[in-house]
Amino acid sequence: MSNKATLGVIIGNRDFFPDRLVSEARADIIALFTQLNINAIMLGDTESKLGGVETFKDAQKCADLFKKHREEITGIMVFLPNFGDEKGVADTIKLSGLNVPVLIQAYPDDLNKLDVARRRDSWCGKISVCNNLYQYGIKYTLTDDHVTHPSDPQFIANLKDFVAICRVVKGLRSVRIGAIGARPGAFNTVRYSEKILQRNGITVTTADLSEILGKADKLTAEHPEVQAHLNKINAYAPKGLTPDDAMIQIAKLDVVLNQFMDEHALDATAIQCWTSLQQNYGCNVCTSMSIMSENMLPSACEVDVTGTLTMYAMQLASGSPSALVDWNNNYADDPNKCVLFHCGNWAKSFLPDIQISTAPILGTTVGVENTYGALDGRTPASPLTYGRISTDDPKGIIKVYLGEGELTDDALNTFGNRAVAEIPDLQSLMQYVCRNGFEHHVVMNASKTAGILKEALGNYMGWEIYEHK
User: Fold this and answer.
1) Range 259-271 burial, b when 16+ CB lie within 10 A, else e
2) I need a labelling partner for 216 at 20 to 30 A (CA). Which of 106, 155, 312, 432 fits?
3) What average pLDDT does range 175-195 have in this prediction?
4) What 3-state DSSP class applies to 84?
């Protein structure tokens, strides 16, 4: 997530307020954006009065500038060093044609500078700007404090969150997901509406699992790409007791999966694993999925397309990998703790003790020898954001639940990929999940980004949001 963010900047102005306020704001913006490595697209100080936006002609000039950079701009930042001209701000955004998040900042007044020559009235102006944006049907984001100086740590935190919101919105409106294989017959829980996703800009590209396995079977152990991927896998995680022939099978499958992703320009995948892959190919795909997720190309098992969509959204919000997990077990008699589990495909970031192993539960039906490639490892204590995106077909909507908690170091004696989560009022959350028909899969991310996701998915994507507090 190192790409430099680019924001369109509007400095609002009203002619009967001191001109120097606009010049001071420009200097503040340049200093702050340089500090945060944000690229600003804004009028030069000679293109309008001090580079501010007040008249309709100013709005046209600023909108034309934004249009020239429409492929770069991911969000618009409105600064109000004084009351500002609400029509100028709204017209600029409307004329630009940009459908991106908008953050509204207003400068605070100084009690000792409320004379005619130095007062701002930005508190009042912000309300007017928001009123006009609401009338124009333009979505916008507010700072935590109604007025705040750009150098204030709280505003800096708000701006960083806004950049993440822009990243999530841009990413989700054009994400491409590969669905590899059919949904396992016993997993109705992961059914979803491809049409509802497409209406929201989310494209799903499908492939029959037999095509992937057929191509993998045609590769030989000596093939240069197979050897290269084998070396990559060995460098990624210790092989443990995994035999060499199983490692070759894993590497061949990894080659073909990467080719499929490249061919279709995919951002994420959801792969059939239970149980066709083990029965027809003889290994688990977990290691490859883990590598992809670690490399910010999230991959979910059981063809859980909306699961991997959730992984992608959380990844965009935090800048770190996500993992698909089961809400799996109670943790003794603690009502606010539970066990998170999966056979073994979590990103390496969650597994400091990572090792390539088998999937014992799956092995009871397909033979443990056919499940090499699952990962074993325990996730240590860390921050936790959890959540789930789901299509609700009867309602024709996308719905989401989100929340934050902690992953703990509580004792947990089991196998696979595993973690203990502590979530306030967990029992109420489970009531909500069950009553609203959500899946048994949830996504975890080692961050505190529920607020970012709520704003991006609810306000800008227009999805139904429940934030668990």
Assistant:
1) ebbeeeebbbbbb
2) 312
3) 96
4) coil
Q: How far apart are CA 353 and CA 3, in angstroms?
A: 30
Omega into 275 within 30° of 0, i.e. cis? yes
C-alpha separations of 22 from 18, 35, 50, 107 in Å: 8, 20, 7, 11
The pLDDT confidence band at residue 97, using thresholds 50, 70 and 90, is: very high
Task: Give 17's pLDDT tier (boundaries 50, 70, 90).
Answer: confident
The answer to whether the CB of 375 falls within 8 A of the CB of 292 is no
**Is 367 strand, coil or helix?**
coil
pLDDT in tens, 65-95: 999 999 999 999 999 999 999 999 999 999 9
CB 393 within 8 A of CB 193: yes
Helix axes 244-264, 286-294, angle to 10 degrees: 50
The amino acid present at 397, given as its one-letter code, is I
What is the spatial distance between Cα 346 and Cα 364, in angstroms, rounded to a whole number? 22
Q: Where are the domains of the chain?
A: 5-172, 176-468
Q: Where does residue 206 rank: exposed (0-12), middle (13-18), buried (19+ CB within 10 A)?
A: middle
User: Topology of domain 176-468, per CATH?
Assistant: L-fucose Isomerase; Chain A, domain 3 (3.20.14)
Structure-block tokens of residue 311: 């992984």
Q: Are strands 397-408 and 464-468 parallel, antiparallel or unpaired?
A: parallel
pLDDT bin (cut points 50, 70, 90) of residue 1 is very low
Select 5-172's CATH number: 3.30.200.20, 3.40.50.2300, 3.40.50.720, 3.40.50.10940.
3.40.50.10940
Tokens for 251, please give them.
């590497």
Residue the block writes with tokens 């152990």: 221
Helix (H/G/I), strand (E/B), else coil: 102: strand
3-state secondary structure of 94: helix
Q: Is 35 exposed, middle or buried (0-12, 13-18, 19+ CB in 10 A)?
A: exposed
